[in-house]
Amino acid sequence: MTTDVSALPAQLGQPSASTPGERLGRGGGWLTLILTLVMLGAMAESLNAATWSDGLEIVRAATLGGALLGFLLALTRWDGLLPTFYSFLASITWIVTLMDKAIFTSLGLHDSVAELIQRNVAWLAALVSGTPSADNLIFVTQLCFLGWWIGHFAIWSLMRHQRMFHAITPAGVALLVNLYYAPVDLSGYLLLYLVAVLLLAIRVELARNETRWQIAQIRYAPDIYLDFLRAGVIFAVFVIALAWTMPNIASRSNLEKLLRPFEAPWSKVEETWSRMYRALNYRGAPPPVAAFGKSMNFGGPVALTDRPIFEAETPLRTYWRAAVYDTYTGQGWLNTDQEVATLERNEPLDEPIFYVSREITATIRPLEDRQEVVFTPPQPLRVSLPLTLDRSEVPRGEDEAGKMVVSRLRSRLTLARGSSYQVAAAVSMATPEELRTAPAVYPAWIIRRYMRLPDTLPERIASLAQEITAPYDTPYDKASAVEAYLRAYTYNLQIAAPPPGADGVDYFLFDRKEGYCDYYASAMAVMLRAVDIPTRLVVGYTPGQAVPPPEDDPTAPPIYQAQERNAHAWVEVWFPTYGWIQFEPTASEPLLVRPKPRSTDTAALNDNGHPTDIPEEDDRRPERGDLLPLGDTRPPGLSGWVQANRTALIVGMLAAILAASAWLWLRRQRLALRRDPDLLGRLFGWIEAWAARLRVPWPASHTLLEHAAAFSHALPEAEPTVNRVTELFVAQQYGREEPPAAALSAAAADWEQLQPLLWKRWLGWLVQRIPH
Predict the structure, then answer these.
(1) What is the CA radius of gyration of the chain?
(2) Is residue 93 packed enough to be buried (19+ CB in 10 Å), middle (13-18) or exposed (0-12)?
């Protein structure tokens, strides 16, 4: 196909689009609508295919409704807030209708509206109060509104303003987030989205060019877009196929410092999500960090499965710590560590090592993909992973000043099934007799942080604690008494959550008298604090089930498998000299077995404070700082790259949006400059401003041509552009000659090309003025 193009004189300005047909053509025609619907359909279908909940099929209808209404509104003359307000009213009507027809089938329209309002109000109350929610209807409703507005603004941005990034970014972000967390592979929807976006970009850019050609009265073939789309399809298929098969070349290490500020906010988002959408069909893929985040709230019924989480090869059967909480609120627990730090592989955590402890090394092998939480024995020392950790420093003036109290560990690499890491940890070997003799004198930093209770704590909790512990003198015996008392309570995973505003421990001790580990551990920790014994709550996993050794190696180190049903909460009590000691108040778990008393002749300690009668690990244990190397923990290909760089992708997308916005702004500024009726006066004014900046003499008595000569003498490279602008300006001002459009456009283009040279000269002048 040949194209006849000829330039004709044109007036600079924006042609009006007064009819729906003209507005449709300005936005790229019906093809833009079709490609946008394909893009939105890929997003909506991916949400439905993820099967997060029943009822997600109406999200497709909601998204389509928003897109079609946005398309119709874009063809009208309406502007400002009126189209948005109209779409808002229509969205409520349409989504309520969908809910009534597809979900509330047995209710009338009036009852459906009342039910929807009531359940949304209850969900908002749970969000504000910090209690969990398991109402999937709210999730479906929110996705419907999200799909409506993504569809509306995508079509509106393209048809009215030809803003490509405004249209594709919300749908792209929703699609990527859904793909990352979905329990099934939905890569095909991403492929469809990318093809639609690339073709849409070609069509919209061509529509912009057609608008410019019409402004400049440049003739072109009406079917030119077919040539562009044909080339675009080939290019899109090639680029996507190349990206889909590329090797895993990404590394998060180069972006660690950049992404570090985003880790804590993103963790809070995941925690809130896990709390407010507990009943979604995660099918084994909930956000790992959210399960052990910065807070733990009392919840309702819990359903745990035999899904394997990780295997641990360890010389000692031990609990696996994921997070530590120090502040009780009445509705749950908080981790108040404010410092978020990073450590490299095998770098010491710098926690204090206490009297009578044994160092062990455990190897952890994740049994599911996308793990980030690092599971460790009670007191970790080193980990063979690059880490992000929450911690606080022991204040100056204390016995352990400068040491760190670490409460949470996350891997900076996303761990995949089949990977492994090693943890060196100190395990207390203190006997009951030794713990009984520990003095009840605590450092000030321990008292401030691990004895505080909320002012709203019911008095009967403290009264019960004092009654139970009154016959005993030592903190260890008091802790054991409370532990034994709580183990008489009934274990029940199906209890209802505490009423709003109720204290969770009070609800467990006096109202229900049954519960699961969160309630048992919280009750023991709070009751001991009420009698001035420092405690903290720990969450993670019990030791798990022993895995039989292979037949060909019956002497292999013990291996334990932690399953989802092993998720647990327990209590740690502080003992001076011995540090944090675990207690098990939950009735469903066996009591912890303490080390037996050592005889007098074998109770001596070695130089590290380890008892000499405890055998050290065999020679296969890696030496300090020499843990086993970690293999590649990311699955290959594009899917692994996306999983390993989800935060980088979010930051990169934001950076790309900012860069694209800046580019569009500069581009519009250039177009506005060329349409400026006082273009030459503006350009000469900028020449004068640069003369002042570069210290070029500019006497008021000089003529315009003399000013231009002085500027050209100081900057010979600028002479052609400055002379051309000055000559046109003089002819316009004094000769009453209006320059042709082509000459004005050429002058503006020359000035844009001159800008880098002027900035370079000015920066060089600044550098010369800096004293050496």
Answers:
(1) 34
(2) exposed
Q: Are 233 and 15 in contact (CB under 8 A)?
A: no
Q: How many other CB atoms are there within 10 angstroms of residue 163's CB atom?
A: 18
Q: Let me know whether 578 and 704 are in one domain.
A: no
pLDDT at 93: 92
Q: Where are the strands (E) in 51-99, listed by range?
A: none
How high is the pLDDT of residue 245? 54
Distance CA 215, CA 220 (A): 12
Buried/exposed code over 515-548 (b: 16+ C-beta within 10 A; e: otherwise): bbbbbbbbbbbbbbbbbebbbbbbbbbbbbeeee
CA separation for the pair 72, 194 (Å, rounded): 25
Contact present, 765 and 740 (Cβ < 8 Å): no
Longest distance between any two alpha carbons in the chain, whole Å: 114
- Determine the average pLDDT of the residues in 578-599: 89
| pLDDT at residue 530 tops 50 | yes
Indicate the pLDDT class of residue 620, thresholds 50, 70 and 90.
very low
Q: What does the alpha-carbon distance between residue 383 and residue 442 come to, in Å, rounded to a whole number? A: 30
**Is there a domain that residue 627 lies in?**
no
Side chain identity at residue 69, one-letter code: L
Res. 214 pLDDT band, cuts 50 70 90: low
Q: How many CB atoms within 10 Å of residue 749?
A: 13
Residues 225 and 269 in one domain: no
- CB burial string 308-346: b at 16+ within 10 A, e below: bbbbbbbbeebbbbbbbbbbbbbbbbbbebeebeebebb
8 Å CB contact between 580 and 536: yes
End-to-end CA distance of the chain: 65
pLDDT interval class at 22 (50, 70, 90) = confident
The β-bridge partners of 425 are 360, 380
At 225-246, the pLDDT tens digits run 565 666 666 666 666 665 555 5
For residue 625, is it within any domain?
no
Number of domains in the chain: 3
Q: Residue 387, SS3?
A: strand
The CATH number of the domain holding residue 416 is 3.10.620.30
Question: Does one domain contain both 240 and 301?
Answer: no
Cα–Cα distance for residue pair 225/31, rounded to 1 Å = 10
Q: What pLDDT, in 10s, does the model give residues 239-268?
A: 666 555 554 444 444 444 455 556 556 666
Burial category of 211 from C-beta neighbours within 10 Å (exposed 0-12, middle 13-18, buried 19 and up): middle
| DSSP per-residue codes, 156-185 | HIIIII--HHHHHHHHHHHHHHHHHH-SS-
Domain span at residue 589 reads 265-611+633-639
Q: Residue 193 CA to chain centroid, in angstroms? A: 22
CA 565/CA 108 separation, integer angstroms: 42
- The answer to whether residue 686 sits within a structural domain is yes
Asked whether residue 459 falls in the same domain as residue 568, the answer is yes
In a domain, 102, yes or no: no
Say yes or no: 485 and 381 in one domain: yes
